[in-house]
């Protein structure tokens, strides 16, 4: 806008400048008024004059030149002749017609053009103001997306169900001849980073049909009614391009449960959701339009959104198992030069609980570490260092600890590690370090052998033993307590509370759950908890939590007291080496037992 206006202003200034140049008298001509000119004629000071158009130019007897405008003075020529002044009359210049047109109509044309520019910009501004209700969906062509199902690994069941939809779009009669109907909506559900959006990109790459992509937050604006208008506009565009796919990422931004907003029934988000519900399965059908949405919060979605006819099918995109992690690692290492000693299966086994995004980050960190060391290929040590960085945080070697703090940290971490080693059924120790990492002064890292999906009461109690082993070691070996156990105590208390209130693992309170959760919109999690038990029960819950935690603490203290020599040896080894692997700790324990025997 401003560039075009600036150009027109420059053109106008140039026109005015040229116009003035044609009308400015030469610098050696003095412009005088007509009465002065007559006085000079009468006094005999004028030598000659030239009459042309509306101007009289001439020369005084002293040699100076002058210029003045003519007026209707009939006796002027007679007076000039009486004074013997040389008179020269010249016809007016015959300029080309376009020059006359330019000077006559140029300023008017310029003003009209400026007016047109302003009106056009105002019209465009008006269109922008009226475009609030237009959907911001991106139409993705099959050539624009490079992601295919070959790039999606670790979620084979989800891929199978989505491939069925792609096949329906390519060959609808294969399903319709048996009376089957393809789902109108597919909801991808899973934790963050498991590949829901990546799966949608692969659908766009494989479908071969128009693919509209939009985020849930794109619907909601500060203006009431805009979101609903955008929903209607999105489906109008989709109907024109049917068969097609609409992908809505993070649908929980607009599809949350109705009736909980502070704005009541006229809340902007609720209007948007109502429009979405009607468009998905209302009075008018949307044949050939498949809606795919992704969320990691299916629990907050409105029930009307999840009923058959809208989102008919929910596809769970879970955290990958060990085979899935291996396939994901193969995908992300395709374009990375790998050393011969690299064992992707070992890395997959050593990364339980990692999502696809976590594994992609792990591979990237390993490649960056190898590049930092000027290596030609990425080897196993790079992946181990990257795994430690992801799991435990970045080493803070610049943080200088005093000898006392190092000793405290060494005994604390040795307590964790030794309780874990001497308690059967706990997760194996991966690495113990007293080098500050992240916000911790030391780290004891455990990695499960297999993927776990359920946890027994015995396993949870042993986990509590390990969590409290650090504080127990401080009390036994150092005879004082430090703030280093703060996070351990918090995790232990939270775990014990869940055992009592959520998982029914308290013998005293029985198989009951306590604390009904109803997480409504705009309400904090703690505020939204409804206390559905008595004060007496609350006291009993507190007593049970305390009993579980203190029992685990006493068990950890007994293990460390019975094996104090191992605790002391492990702490001294950590002070010397700073970091120990799980097999190093096993070797130290075996050597100590041999010496003791």
Could you describe the 3D structure shown?
The chain has 597 residues and is an alpha/beta fold. The protein folds into three domains: 138-316, P-loop containing nucleotide triphosphate hydrolases (Rossmann fold), CATH 3.40.50.300; 322-392, Orthogonal Bundle (Helicase, Ruva Protein, domain 3); 403-596, Peptidase M41 (Methane Monooxygenase Hydroxylase, Chain G, domain 1, Up-down Bundle), CATH 1.20.58. The protein is built from 21 helices and 16 strands. The protein has helices at residues 2-23, 34-43, 76-82, 97-130, 156-170, 173-176, 196-207, 226-240, 268-281, 303-306, 322-332, 344-349, 356-372, 380-392, 403-422, 457-467, 469-478, 486-501, 535-562, 564-577, 582-596, and strands at residues 29-31, 46-52, 55-60, 65-69, 86-90, 138-140, 185-189, 211-215, 244-249, 289-295, 313-316, 429-433, 443-446, 516-517, 529-530, 579-581. The chain has a six-stranded mixed beta sheet with strand order 6-8-9-10-7-11. A five-stranded mixed beta sheet has the order 1-4-3-2-5, covered by helices on one side. Helix 8 links the parallel strand 8 (211-215) and strand 9 (244-249). Helix 15 crosses helix 20. The model is unreliable at 125-133, 262-266 and 518-529 (pLDDT under 50). Its main location: membrane.
């Amino acid at each position: 806008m401003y560039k075009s206006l600036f150009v027109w202003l420059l053109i106008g200034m140039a026109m005015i400048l040229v116009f003035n140049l044609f009308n400015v008298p030469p610098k050696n001509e003095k412009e005088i008024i007509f009465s002065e000119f007559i006085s000079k004629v009468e006094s005999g000071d004028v030598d000659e004059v030239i009459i042309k158009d509306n101007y009289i130019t001439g020369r005084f007897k002293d040699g100076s030149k002058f210029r003045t405008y003519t007026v209707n003075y009939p006796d002027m020529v007679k007076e000039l002749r009486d004074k013997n002044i040389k008179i020269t009359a010249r016809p007016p210049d015959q300029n080309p017609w376009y020059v006359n047109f330019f000077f006559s109509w140029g300023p008017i044309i310029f003003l009209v053009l400026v007016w047109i520019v302003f009106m056009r910009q105002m019209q465009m501004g008006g269109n922008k103001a009226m475009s609030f209700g237009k959907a911001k969906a991106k139409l993705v062509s099959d050539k624009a997306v490079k992601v295919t199902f070959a790039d999606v690994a670790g979620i084979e069941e989800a891929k199978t169900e989505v491939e069925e939809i792609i096949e329906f779009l390519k060959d609808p009669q294969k399903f319709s001849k048996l009376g089957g109907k393809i789902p109108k909506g597919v909801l991808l559900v899973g934790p963050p980073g498991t590949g829901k959006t990546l799966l949608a990109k692969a659908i766009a790459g494989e479908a071969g049909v128009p693919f509209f992509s939009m985020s849930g937050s794109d619907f909601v604006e500060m203006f009431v009614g805009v979101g609903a208008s955008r929903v209607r506009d999105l489906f109008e565009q989709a109907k024109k391009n049917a068969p097609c796919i609409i992908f809505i990422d993070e649908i929980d931004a607009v599809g949350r449960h109705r009736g909980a907003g502070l704005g009541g029934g006229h809340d902007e988000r609720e209007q948007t959701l109502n429009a979405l519900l009607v468009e998905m399965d209302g009075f008018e059908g949307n044949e050939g339009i498949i809606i795919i949405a992704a969320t990691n919060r299916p629990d907050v979605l409105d029930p009307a959104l999840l009923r058959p006819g809208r989102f008919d099918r929910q596809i769970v995109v879970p955290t990958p198992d060990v085979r899935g992690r291996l396939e994901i690692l193969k995908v992300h290492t395709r374009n990375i030069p790998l050393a011969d000693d690299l064992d992707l299966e070992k890395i997959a086994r050593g990364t339980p609980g990692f999502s696809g995004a976590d594994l992609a980050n792990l591979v990237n960190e390993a490649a960056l570490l190898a590049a930092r060391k000027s290596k030609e290929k990425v080897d196993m040590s790079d992946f181990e260092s990257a795994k430690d960085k992801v799991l435990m945080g970045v080493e803070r070697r610049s943080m200088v600890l005093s000898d006392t703090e190092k000793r405290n940290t060494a005994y604390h971490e040795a307590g964790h590690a030794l309780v874990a080693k001497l308690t059967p059924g706990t997760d194996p120790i991966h690495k113990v370090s007293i080098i500050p990492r992240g916000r911790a002064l030391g780290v004891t890292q455990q990695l499960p052998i297999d993927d776990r999906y359920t946890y027994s009461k015995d396993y949870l109690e042993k986990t509590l033993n390990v969590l409290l082993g650090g504080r127990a070691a401080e009390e036994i070996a150092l005879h004082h307590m430090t703030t280093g156990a703060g996070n351990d105590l918090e995790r232990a208390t939270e775990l014990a509370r869940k055992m009592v209130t959520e998982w029914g693992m308290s013998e005293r309170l029985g198989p009951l759950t306590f604390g009904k959760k109803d997480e409504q919109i705009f309400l904090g999690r703690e505020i939204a908890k409804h206390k559905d038990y008595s004060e007496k029960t609350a006291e009993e819950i507190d007593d049970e939590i305390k009993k579980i935690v203190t029992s685990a603490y006493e068990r950890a203290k007994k293990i460390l007291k019975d094996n104090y020599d191992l605790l002391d040896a492990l702490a001294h080894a950590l002070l010397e080496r700073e970091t120990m692997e799980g097999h190093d700790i096993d070797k130290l324990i075996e050597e100590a037992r041999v010496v003791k025997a």
